[in-house]
TrEMBL record:
Pfam families: Peptidase_S26
Range of residues in the leader sequence: 1-16
GO molecular function: serine-type endopeptidase activity; signal peptidase activity
Taxonomic superkingdom: Bacteria
Listed EC numbers: 3.4.21.89
Name this protein carries in UniProt: Signal peptidase I
Swiss-Prot/TrEMBL keywords: Hydrolase, Protease, Signal
Length: 235
């Protein structure tokens, strides 16, 4: 019976999985209220891939493969067992990763970016605050948008970190509002993310709803739908 239950859970989690975005740490790529589609088998499997994975022993991954820099991944939250987080991979095992004056440095070189001009960050109550938009280009040629609210943010300068074997360095695209690998697990962040924690690679946004819109009936519910984000591809 136990083996049957295990195989059922593996089968359910091997095809596709959906997750809701509940924070703004990945803006502008992912918005609060987005429903993401992830490919669970993208990096192989560990017990973290199972619905009850937090209760099982940690170990290696089977059919394991490394993410690419720039992949958006979902994973077990190291600081909050039982939760699923989403961030972007910027550093692989062996990489040197550092923030200097708000700019990402990889392996001793400053990652290039392009200033896309003024934008905004949507906060939980639906209001918007000014932010600057940039396009960041990682060394392997993949680009993605980021947000910066401050020129001298609290996480703009970090030590040079060498990503150890079996770990990743992940960051939110909303650089001034993301508890990621720049923040230790003991302070509520991700720290250096063990590969065991990975649950999948985000492929697209299935649907999206502005949760800040008052829900008082069918009219307001329809008004909350972000029709432009249905089957929305992400960088």
């Amino acid at each position: 019976m136990a083996l049957t239950l295990f195989l059922v859970c593996v089968a359910r989690s091997s095809l596709a999985a959906t997750y809701s975005v509940s924070s703004g740490s990945m803006q502008p790529s992912l918005l609060i209220g987005d429903r993401m589609l992830a490919e669970p088998f993208a990096y192989g499997y560990s017990t973290a891939s199972l619905p009850f994975g937090d209760r099982l022993p940690r170990g290696s991954r089977i059919f394991a493969s490394l993410p690419r820099r720039g992949d958006i991944v979902v994973f077990r939250g190291p600081a909050m067992p039982g939760t699923t987080w989403v961030k972007r991979v910027v550093g692989l095992p062996g990489d040197h990763v550092q923030m200097r004056a708000g700019r990402l440095w990889l392996n001793g070189r400053k990652v290039t970016w392009h200033d896309d001009g003024p934008g905004d960050e949507e906060v939980a109550d639906g209001s918007k605050v000014p932010a600057e938009r940039f396009t960041e280009a990682l060394p392997d040629g993949r680009s993605h948008p980021i947000l910066k609210r401050w020129k001298d943010g609290p996480l703009d300068d970090t030590p040079d970190v060498i990503v150890p074997a079996g770990c990743l360095f992940v960051m939110g695209d909303n650089r001034d509002n993301s508890a990621d690998s720049r923040v230790p697990v003991g302070q509520g962040g991700v720290g250096l993310l063990p590969l065991w924690n990975l649950q999948g690679r985000v492929e697209l946004v299935l649907a999206s709803r502005d949760i800040a819109v008052t829900t008082g009936g069918p009219t307001s519910w329809i008004a909350s739908i972000r029709s432009g984000r249905f089957l929305h591809s992400i960088d």
